Amino acid sequence: MVTVPDDSLEPNIFTARHIGDEYNGIMREFRRAVAIAGAQHIEYYDRGLPTVAADLLAHPVLAENFRGARTVERARRDYETIGRQLNHRMTELNAALFGVAGGRLIRTVFAAPDRAVLYFDIDEGQYIVGVSLTADALDAADLTLSAAAARIRTARGLADPNYGGYHQGGYYQPPGAPSATGALDARPREDAGEDHAGEDHAGGDHAGEVEAGEVEAGGAAHIFASLPRPSVPVFANPWATLIHRRWSPLRDGREELFQAQAVNILQPADLQYIALVREGRVSAADVLDHSDLNEFFVGPGRTARRDAFERVGAEFLVLSDLLDGLLRSVLNRRLTRTVLDVEKGALYFHRISRDEVLLGVTVDQRRVADADRRFQLLVHRFTAARGE
Q1: What ranges does the record list as Low complexity composition bias (predicted)?
Q2: What's the whole-model pTM score?
Q3: In order of start, what are the domains of the chain with their CATH numbers?
Q4: Each residue of 233-261: pLDDT tens digit?
């Protein structure tokens, strides 16, 4: 790689010797995307070969990450090596996810509590790898790189795959956060009230309706306005009777706790499947039988998809160990959170211990970010109940 001299207050830009003006658009996007409060290192690869990189690793805010033999230059070499190796790892991951019927991987998040490596598929054999080294920058890095990757594709006349489900209302924006009750905050959506292709599934037959008296003074819908009108208290899960459960052979109190929490976590709108995997044993719960999800099961049906999710969940611990080894030079600690964002939905993993992992799934690409927030709510409640 050749270093391009630049102002010390600007990102350091690196380019391979063979590239020309055709990469100017990528360099512009990288200058725009790299940030201390976001992705601090970004690199573009073509079939495993690095082409353009931008970083702010020499910024004083990041000095704690580079001490002794762990210099900025060494970190740059390590990040480049990881990016090269991800070319093969993503091929393996795509093969492992074939039975899920969600299409190819378009985005992945490999994260420890305070740092992450992010991957974005761009074109045939071309991808972006980003690194964020501070806890408060992870969400911004993900959102910014999702938007940058979409713009690079759009400039080539390629469709925006809606990385992370962040593309709402014509631009990339963060999802609504789950409320204390577990319901998603009701933010305005352009597609509310349309036919199935754009409807809000969360409300069943009454989705998107706002009756008289439910609009607040400022014009915003009340947080519960999009919920169905149940005959039981509003805090009860209206889909509880639809939950399909799979118990492991060794049913115990921890599994009972997980299954009990499923009632208040699952919903057809976003997080439709969850599982607790312990030493290869799977306990699962889902609302995949909800009629609003029928369109997502044309082809591989619900039973086949459940089997595929269980298989991936049971195999993930071995995969996580392999990824730990690959990413150790960046994360410097055990991988705890993994998001596998495919063309049609996403799988979320949270590793609780060496032999235990939580799995969440959404089948709707439009709700990937919302489902991720809801899955993190499950992680928080399940680990808090154990005092972790």
Answers
A1: 164-174
A2: 0.84
A3: 2-168 (3.30.450.30), 237-385 (3.30.450.30)
A4: 444 678 888 999 999 998 999 999 999 99
